[in-house]
Specification:
By secondary structure, this protein is of the alpha/beta class. It folds into two domains: 14-242, Alpha-Beta Barrel (TIM Barrel); 245-273, no CATH class. 41% of the residues lie in helices and 13% in strands. It has helices at 14-22, 35-43, 55-58, 70-83, 102-116, 130-138, 154-157, 167-183, 195-204, 225-228, 246-262, and strands spanning 27-31, 48-51, 88-92, 120-122, 143-148, 187-191, 209-212, 220-223. Strand 1 (27-31), helix 2 and strand 2 (48-51) form a beta-alpha-beta unit. Helix 2 packs across helix 4, helix 4 (70-83) packs parallel to helix 5 and helix 5 crosses helix 6. The longest helix is centred in the middle third of the chain and has 17 residues, at 167-183.
Amino acid sequence: MAGYLVEDQKKITSTRFTQMKAQGKKIAMLTSYDYTMAQIIDAAGVDSILIGDSASNVMAGNDTTLPITLDQMIYHARSVARGAKRAFVICDMPFGTYQISREDGIRNAVRLMQETGVDCLKLEGGVEIIDTVRGIINAGIPVCGHLGLTPQSVYKFGGFGLRAREEAEANKLLSDAKLLEEAGCCAVVLEKIPAELANKVTAALNIPTIGIGAGNGCDGQVLVGQDMLGMNRGFKPKFLRHFADLYTAITDGVGDYVRAVKDGSFPNADEAY
């Protein structure tokens, strides 16, 4: 089916993103790291595209998100922003670009916005970075928060396990979510936390919550595009659903191409000048 899978093709902004919650409209978000994929998923009707620092894993093969640099994120974000026409485009601020100081965070945020054309930035953490979040928002830049399993803190957590199972951490997460809303964030991602807690946070906020491994009660959902499309064999956490099997489709297509080249049937007479 050509074109958008939604009737409303108007560009989604930070204001409209927040309004979707009040209107009871679920938000569909996917990651993308390149122009071609961004064009496809934008035309297919996603409401938001996240240039995640998961590019470190998906595009570069690293075990964590920590190695990806600001320059690398700018490259990916610029490519995605060119391909997205309707979706609200959010870019992760990579590890080390906002944890050192408030001024450093604002400076790097301004550079990301100037050099990429994205609509919003995403930062991991709550009270620990709240002054930086306020500074970035005061500079006129929309911010999306990220709580729960925050991959940039993987070594602190000791792995990628479920977060906020204990009461103290759950209470802090709820408090952090409220702080992010008060600071002016337009949304909060909740990653890998109990569904009951995610429901509680969602009910307590006027801004939308975007879940990944946080149950069905969030205002929206996000998945890594390559994971959702079944491109990564052997990676199947509980929260991931495969909506396609591109691993098989691509492997079969490449195999057919290789055979056609080797048996001389490609290119044929119609494919030659």
